[in-house]
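quick q for whoever's on today - can somebody do inverse folding on this one?? i tried earlier but teh output was garbage lol. tokens:
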């Protein structure tokens, strides 16, 4: 924890919003309206690994009902930067340990953005079990799926991507991380009731800051996996910083709705 800076989360937010699968949001919106119909209460939403609140900022205006959000994160500094509104509570918790307690029985929607590639299969089993136990909807978005495609190829792109994907499968505080295998693992666990759509980042040639941040992060991750290849990785990163390429980074959005 503490590895995600507010600046990085703010930089990625615009790409997240453009990438997210609107079809799944529309389905969730219809579920929310039906679930609350005539009840007079607010939709209870729990956002796991909420960080600075990007998921709330994006999704809340797209749900056509009154809502109360609980933002859960292990990083108190990030949580402090989330919006301060009456329809939102913040909860500091280590989700590797306190997952079940962080999802109250009354939750209608459990959501997580850019989280489940960090977690283990065992943790996903716990998540699906808890969501099914309380009959909630599950919306998991922007899970990295291992694809990185540049608009112009460098001979070392695939090698660096494979090192990055190896790094993604390392320990991230939840046991061995699923990394790029996370969307498939969730699909296998949740079964055909879970819809999966792609939500790829599309980074244009002019998006220098985003491209630079990704190249820096990937070079650092690759060097952790292959420390003896530091010079080769740095040379790749230097070339990638200089060329104005576009790129696509593969992500998945997934939604499971309970039967109403
Ligand atoms: C990639 S960030 C995504 C943040 C936010 N959902 C977004 O989309 O901008 C992952 C978040 O998971 C949180 N996190 C990582 N491990 C955690 C843990 N064990 N318990 C609680 N939060 C954790 C981090 O602090 C970070 O805010």
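ok took a stab at it. sequence:
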């Amino acid at each position: 924890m503490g590895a995600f800076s507010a600046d990085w989360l703010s930089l990625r937010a615009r790409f997240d919003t453009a990438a997210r699968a609107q079809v799944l949001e529309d389905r969730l919106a219809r579920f929310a309206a039906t679930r609350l119909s005539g009840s007079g209460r607010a939709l209870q939403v729990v956002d796991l690994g909420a960080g600075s609140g990007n998921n709330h900022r994006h999704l809340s205006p797209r749900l056509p009902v009154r809502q109360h959000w609980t933002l859960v994160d292990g990083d108190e500094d990030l949580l402090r930067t989330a919006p301060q509104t009456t329809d939102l509570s913040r909860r500091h918790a280590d989700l590797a340990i306190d997952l079940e307690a962080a999802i109250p029985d009354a939750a209608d929607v459990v959501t997580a953005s850019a989280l489940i590639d960090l977690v283990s299969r065992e943790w996903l089993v716990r998540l699906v079990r808890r969501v099914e136990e309380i009959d909630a909807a599950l919306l998991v978005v922007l899970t990295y799926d291992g694809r990185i495609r540049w608009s112009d190829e460098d001979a070392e792109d695939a090698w660096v991507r494979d090192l990055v994907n190896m790094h993604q499968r390392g320990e991230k505080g939840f046991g061995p991380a699923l990394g790029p295998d996370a969307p498939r693992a969730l699909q296998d666990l949740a079964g055909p009731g879970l819809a999966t759509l792609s939500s790829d980042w599309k980074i244009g040639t002019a998006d220098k800051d985003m491209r630079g941040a990704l190249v820096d992060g990937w070079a650092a991750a690759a060097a952790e996996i292959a420390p003896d290849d530091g010079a080769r990785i740095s040379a790749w990163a230097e070339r990638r910083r200089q060329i104005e390429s576009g790129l696509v980074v593969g992500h998945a959005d997934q939604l499971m709705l309970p039967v109403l």
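fwiw Residues 166 and 225 are 7 Å apart (CA to CA). also The longest strand covers residues 137-150. so keep that in mind when u check it
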